[in-house]
Design a protein that fits this description.
Elements lengths: L26 E5 L6 E4 H10 L3 E6 L6 E5 L1 H18 L5 E6 L5 H17 L2 E7 L8 H14 L4 E10 L2 E8 L3
Parallel strand pairs: 1-4, 5-6
Antiparallel strand pairs: 1-2, 3-4, 6-8, 7-8
């Protein structure tokens, strides 16, 4: 036997729903599509499920009595996993790109970084532009703010400003979201 290993757990026991004989309640509320819910014993519910070659699945264990449904459990789990996979595929991941300026950035450097920012916004990434103040350059806060506002104005057709220039420590930060197409 291996040391420090977990005991073997059957896949059915690890499932999130109790099925058939694993339902512990004495009475259940059986929900059948197109009919009124019926309160009955677990044994009778299992017998009805076996007649249809299906499983009795506990849907709501915290209700009194627990709510159960007759269904093909493996097909149910398969469909749930497929839906989760589809939802995960539809999610869009937000990518944040950073662009750093100094308070005394020249026009050529500004144009170069602006071109990069345009490319990032066209790809659908968020852009975080910031002016980093080193040492005594903190006295040029107004230059940094003007630079960032000019940057936001140049990108107005591609992105919307999420956060106006704001000083945080030694950085003045501007956030720009890409516009939806």
């Amino acid at each position: 036997m291996r040391r420090n290993s977990k005991p073997f757990v059957k896949r059915e026991e690890a499932a999130q729903h109790r099925i058939n004989e694993k339902i512990y309640a004495s009475e259940i509320r059986l929900v059948i599509e197109g009919e009124e819910p019926q309160v009955m014993s677990v044994a009778k519910g299992i017998a009805l499920a076996e007649e249809q070659d299906m499983d009795l699945v506990e849907i709501s264990p915290n209700a009194t009595p627990p709510v159960c449904k007759i269904m093909d459990y493996k097909k149910f789990i398969y469909n749930q996993k497929r839906k989760q996979k589809e939802l995960k595929a539809k999610q869009s991941k937000v990518i944040l790109k950073e662009i750093r300026f100094g308070p005394n950035t020249d026009d050529h450097d500004f144009a170069f970084k602006l071109a990069h920012a345009k490319k990032f916004l066209e790809e659908g990434s968020k852009v975080k532009a910031y002016v980093f103040f080193k040492g005594r350059t903190i006295v040029f806060k107004d230059r940094g703010e003007i630079l960032l506002l000019k940057f936001a104005q140049e990108l107005a057709d591609l992105g919307a400003v999420e956060q106006l220039p704001k000083l945080e420590g030694k950085k003045m930060i501007l956030m720009i979201n890409p516009k939806k197409k």
